Amino acid sequence: MAFETNKFNVTKKTKLSAGDFSVECNVSVGSEIGKILSVGIKATDENYETLNGVLNYSGNIDLKLVFLTTDGEINSSCHTCNFSSKFESDEITTGTEAVINVNIIDYSIESISGDSLRIVVNLSQNAVISQEKEIDSVLCNDEDVCSCNEEIEIVKLLASKKDTFYVESETMVKNIKKILCVESQVILKNAESGVNFVAVQGEVVNKILYLTDEDKFESFYINEAFKEEIEVENAARENLSEVYLKIKEDGVSTQIENDEQGQKVCVKVPVMACIYVYQNEVLSVVKDLYSTKNEINIVTESFQNTVVCPSFSIEEKIEGSLTLDDESPRVDKVLFYCGNGVNLTNVYVQDDKVFVEGIAKTNVVYLNDETNSLNSVQVDVPFSFNDKIECNECENLIANAVVTDVDVVVKKGRDLYYDAKVKVNLSCSQNKISAIISQASVNELLPERDYAMEVLFAQKEQNAWDIAKTAHVTVEQILAQNPELVFPLEEDANVILYYKKN
For residue 195, what is the DSSP state? Predict the structure, then answer.
């Protein structure tokens, strides 16, 4: 009697412990700084490496500064600050795939000297890793071995790919003297697998802040929908794809082209896509087995397999207000607002709903007539909303958000009212535990029967398999010799077995 091993792979996702860290950025803006009016900060991870027990990664902090020079001129400056961080966990192994999220918590300007400033940025990090695990399943074609099979659904990572594509937007605008700030965001709308490709649909949101020839501040949004087909070998229509999109901030470019109708603003945004393609399979595995001639030792192994749910999007309107403290100059006119962003502080699933909590932020620059001065204040707007979710046992939830259509108005000189739209894309998965017979070995022979008939006292709800396994006979013998019984038993019954004596 020989047992064979059938091997198959499954994918398991694990959420790593979140954490906070700080990065110090030292930048030079090229002009003497009189006052910082607005700071826009984004953090993006770019490269990672997984080793046994540690996930090391690096990325960029991108700063967009709007400031007043000592000469009274409004300038802007963009800078990139490199950083590195890590996760530590016994779950991490060499070659593990990872999805990393880095969010800005807050920042502080530690010092300003001439054209230089030092900013300390506080960040939060979280990650979900995907691991491939090889599972052993027992097979045996021996006629003396009875086996009970069951079908299980498994998910395995079929392919992964990173790619960068460009989304270009343009619009006609009149009377631009200088572009002060371009804020670009990207949000996923849908991802579908095709034959050797994944179709990625989403939207790039660009906010352009500029100065007119009359030195007035104006801004506008360009929302550009896109659909990009990215080649992924072995992908098929029936596969499920997860896609995570990020903007490579230092690659965003803006051009102004003059023509007869006015000025055309062209924005080119590089979008980084991390794509994971999963394949669902149904396998027939041995759930239980026994021998009619020998005792058998079996080893049962439990394993976790991740079920991946399709991603989905939520869009909600949010609003809030801020009252200036008594020491701040009153607001006589809002000039502009930039440094728009959103930080998701908590996303969880409860009672078939997903709950999203976060803080939307913007820097409001305003004029005070009494002192004839430019001033700025950061407006933080907490929000919370929920929506229905189909994947209601979600363990690994990854959320990305953008804020758009921001509007800020002032009332009574000290109250600022904020409203905007928040668009959130969520990817959800859950881990399911399955058990399988991974090893089996033959033990001693069963004792020979010295009787021709046996009566088994079976209990209500027992099935033919359990009775046959106890008696070390086949299910077919149970059914053939007890045709009057219906299994599972509706009541206690006697099961009669007849044996041939040598």
Answer: T
Tokens encoding 129: 């890793």
pLDDT at 1: 60
Domains and CATH numbers, the chain: 1-139 (no CATH), 449-502 (3.10.350)
Kindly state the tokens that stand for 67. Answer: 């400031």
For 365, counting Cβ atoms within 10 Å of its Cβ (0-12 exposed, 13-18 middle, 19+ buried), the class is buried
Cβ atoms of residues 14 and 91 within 8 Å: yes
Specify which residues 354 forms β-bridges with: 349, 387
CB atoms within 10 A of CB 74: 20
Question: What's residue 392's pLDDT?
Answer: 64
**Residue 502: its pLDDT value, please?**
59
Radius of gyration (C-alpha) of the chain in whole angstroms: 32
Confidence label for 266 from pLDDT (cuts 50, 70 and 90): very high
What is residue 309's predicted lDDT score, i.e. its pLDDT? 87
Farthest-apart Cα atoms in the chain, separation: 115
Q: How far apart are CA 242 and CA 288, in angstroms?
A: 35
DSSP-derived 3-state class of residue 441: strand
Q: Which two tokens stand for residue 220?
A: 């506008």
C-beta separation of 39 from 61 below 8 A: no
Query: For the chain, what is the total number of helices (H) and then of strands (E)?
Result: 2, 22
Between CA 359 and CA 432 the distance in angstroms is 33
Are the beta carbons of 398 and 128 closer than 8 angstroms? yes
Specify whether the CB–CB gap between 87 and 125 falls below 8 A: yes
- Of the ranges 43-52, 184-193, 394-403, 421-430, which one carries the lowest mean pLDDT score? 394-403
* Phi, psi (deg, nearest 5) at residue 233: -65, 140
Under the phi-then-psi rule, with left for phi > 0, alpha for psi from -120 to 50, and beta for the rest, what region is 175? left
pLDDT band, residue 166 (cuts 50/70/90): very high
331, 324 Cβ separation under 8 angstroms: yes
**Alpha carbon distances (Å) from 256 to 262, 263, 417, 435:** 10, 6, 33, 63
With a CB cutoff of 8 Å and minimum separation 6, the contacts of 216 are none
Q: Give the separation between CA 267 and CA 173, rounded to whole angstroms.
A: 13
The 10s digit of each residue's pLDDT in 316-368 is 999 999 999 988 999 999 999 999 999 999 999 888 889 999 999 999 999 99
